[in-house]
Amino acid sequence: MRALLTPLTLLPLGLLLGAAAGGTGGRPETPSRDAQALLEPIWKKVSPKLPTAPPPFLWQRRLTPPLPLTWPPDSRTAWVRYAFAHGFDARLSDGVRVAAPYARVRLDRRGDPVAAEPLPPPRGGLELGVQGVQPTNPPSGGIDPEAIARSERLALELDRLPVPGSSTEAGVVAFYGRWLDREAVIAGSLRGDHARFFDWLEAARVRRPPTASPGSG
Fold it and tell me: Where are the alpha helices (DSSP H) in the chain?
């Protein structure tokens, strides 16, 4: 399979490797304990099928931010996260391997996980491609989990389209736009199920110049 290399803005690799596979690690993209409990049985069936090679890849579980199942949103809109994995390959100094989503986690209106369902593997195989890695702003490229949590709550609380030009629209567009930029491989694999949301987001980004995302240094 031809590797797909696109820019990824992340923590420095040493910090990214700090969380044990499937642990909480303090990172908003790593499954919480509640989500981990729901996902563990699914992960145990998927992980042995993930590709590996000498030297072995280190696969670590990740979650997407909340994504709406319908758009425009209303008070009944269901939100979900997708569980996938990054594979760290010692031969790749500037990229991580990306495994396809293996489960979908349904959220309540507060963003807490309430159920998880396994997803069928894609026809092309479990590995989607390689996501390019580069550090965020110096000195540490740190990500603030509290700022990210605030951005996610802003989205989850939407009961209508944000007013164009409003601070709510700015916050949602900055947060999800940054995610699209740094997780293009996984985002691209999910576009078909969330096409109207992605279309709105891209149109809003055209109207609004890019800004630093919440939680990025």
Answer: 13-16, 33-46, 145-156, 167-182, 184-190, 195-207
Which tokens in the block code for residue 154? 């802003």
Question: Residue 217 falls within a domain, yes or no?
Answer: no
Question: What pTM does this model have?
Answer: 0.78
Residue 81 lies in a domain: yes
Rounded to 10 degrees, what is the CA torsion of 99, 101, 102, 103?
A: 150
In a domain, 157, yes or no: yes
**Which tokens is 207 given?**
């109207």
Q: Is residue 70 part of a domain?
A: yes
Domain of residue 56 covers: 5-207
- What's the structural domain count of the chain? 1
Q: State whether the Cα torsion 21-24-29-33 is positive or negative.
A: positive
User: pLDDT tens digits for 75-118?
Assistant: 999 999 999 998 887 777 778 889 999 999 999 989 999 999 99
- Looking at residue 2, its amino acid is R
Check if the beta carbon of residue 71 is closer than 8 Å to that of residue 203.
Answer: no
